[in-house]
From TrEMBL:
Catalyzes the phosphorylation of ribose at O-5 in a reaction requiring ATP and magnesium. The resulting D-ribose-5-phosphate can then be used either for sythesis of nucleotides, histidine, and tryptophan, or as a component of the pentose phosphate pathway. Signal peptide: none annotated. This is Ribokinase. It comes from Caproicibacter fermentans. One of its GO terms (cellular component) is cytoplasm. It catalyses: D-ribose + ATP = D-ribose 5-phosphate + ADP + H(+). The lineage of its organism: Bacteria, Bacillati, Bacillota, Clostridia, Eubacteriales.
C-alpha cells in the first residue's frame, strides 16, 4: 500500500501568551517562534516518523522553499509537490501557559490546488493505496470523488470546518477523523453511540475516529464494533500538533496491524508525548521513542466501549 498525503503547507507563526487574547483586548506575546506546519505537513511528518513511506502532494508558495528540506529530513517523497508564485499559506497560532491554542489560517498557495493537479497526482496511485486529506486546501470534494473512483482508501480530517464540507460525499470516505467540536458539527453529538447511529444511517461504509483530548479516543467501526483508548496522562505544554500526531500514528498502525484497538493505543501515546513539547512538527515523536515508551511505562490502555 502506497500512502499519499494531499494537503496543506503552512508557515506556523506561533505566539506564546499568558492567556489567549479576548475580544477588544490587546496583549503582548511572551515569545514568538516560526515553524513549518499545516495539517497536511504535520500529518505527513507523523506518518513518516511512525514508520511509513510517505508521498506528499501540495502547493508551496513563493516564500515556502523551506518545506523541501523539512520534508526531505523525514524522508518524505516530494516529487508530486508544485510551487506557486502566490504567498505560502500560514497560520497565526496563540498558545497559552496551559498549552491550549487558537489558530487562524491564511490559505495562500494551498488554494492553488486544482482538479487538473489532483488528476495528475492520483495518476501515480492505484486501488488499495491510501490517501490522507484535510480541509485546508481547495478541491477536497473533487479529490474524494476521484480517489474513490480509483479505489483508494480515503482518510479525511474535516478541519477546519466550513460550509463547503456539506457538499462533500462523505459516504465515499473510509475513515473520518474528528475531534469533539467537529463531531458535534457533523453528527450533532460527541458521544460514540450517537455517532454510530448517525453514521450507520448516512454513511454506512465509513468508520469514525473520535478524539477528545484528555478524555481519550474512540474508533467507531463501519462493522459496528467500537474501541476505546485512554489518553496518556501528561502535563500539556503545547497541543497544536496533538491531533495531527494522532492521525499519522493511527493510520500507520492500522495499515500495519489492521487492529483498531492497537492503533488507538499507539496513537494516543504518540499524541500524548507530542503535547509535552513546544511547536507543531518539532513536537512529533519518532516511532522508536514511542515504542521505547510503551515498553518501559505503559500497559493496559485499551478497553472496549
Amino acid at each position: 500500500m502506497k500512502k499519499l498525503v494531499l494537503g496543506s503547507l503552512n508557515i506556523d507563526r506561533t505566539y506564546r501568551v499568558t492567556d489567549l487574547v479576548k475580544p477588544m483586548e490587546t496583549i503582548a506575546a511572551n515569545k514568538y517562534e516560526s515553524y513549518c506546519g499545516g495539517k497536511g505537513f504535520n500529518q505527513a511528518v507523523a506518518l513518516a516518523r511512525a514508520g511509513s513511506e510517505v508521498f506528499f502532494a501540495g502547493i508551496i508558495g513563493s516564500d515556502g522553499d523551506m518545506f523541501w528540506d523539512a520534508l526531505h529530513s523525514d524522508a518524505i517523497k516530494t516529487d508530486l509537490m508544485r510551487k506557486s508564485e502566490s504567498p505560502n499559506g500560514h497560520a497565526v497560532i496563540q498558545v497559552d501557559e496551559e498549552g491550549q491554542n487558537c489558530i487562524i489560517i491564511v490559505s495562500g498557495s494551498n488554494e492553488k490546488v486544482t482538479e487538473t493537479y489532483i488528476d495528475e497526482v492520483l495518476s501515480h496511485f492505484s486501488e488499495g493505496d491510501l490517501i490522507v486529506l484535510q480541509n485546508e486546501i481547495s478541491c477536497v470534494g473533487y479529490a474524494i470523488e476521484q480517489a474513490s473512483r480509483k479505489g483508494l482508501q480515503i482518510a479525511f480530517n474535516p478541519s477546519p470546518l466550513n460550509k463547503t464540507i456539506q457538499t462533500y460525499d462523505m459516504a465515499k470516505v473510509d475513515i473520518l477523523l474528528v475531534n469533539e467540536v467537529e463531531s458535534k458539527a457533523l453528527f450533532g453529538s460527541d458521544d460514540a453511540e450517537s455517532i454510530q447511529r448517525v453514521v450507520n444511517k448516512k454513511y454506512p461504509g465509513t468508520s469514525v475516529v473520535l478524539t477528545k483530548g484528555a478524555a481519550g479516543a474512540w474508533f467507531i467501526g463501519a462493522n459496528g464494533k467500537t474501541y476505546y483508548s485512554e489518553a496518556l496522562p501528561c502535563s500539556a505544554v503545547d497541543t497544536t500538533a496533538a491531533g495531527d500526531t494522532f492521525t499519522g500514528y493511527f493510520l500507520h498502525e492500522l495499515s500495519r496491524s489492521d487492529d483498531p484497538s492497537e492503533a488507538l493505543r499507539v496513537a494516543s501515546i504518540a499524541s500524548g508525548i507530542s503535547v509535552t513539547r513546544k511547536g507543531a512538527s518539532p513536537s512529533i515523536p519518532f516511532g522508536k521513542e514511542v515504542r521505547e515508551f510503551m515498553k518501559k511505562t505503559f500497559a493496559g490502555m485499551n478497553k472496549p466501549n
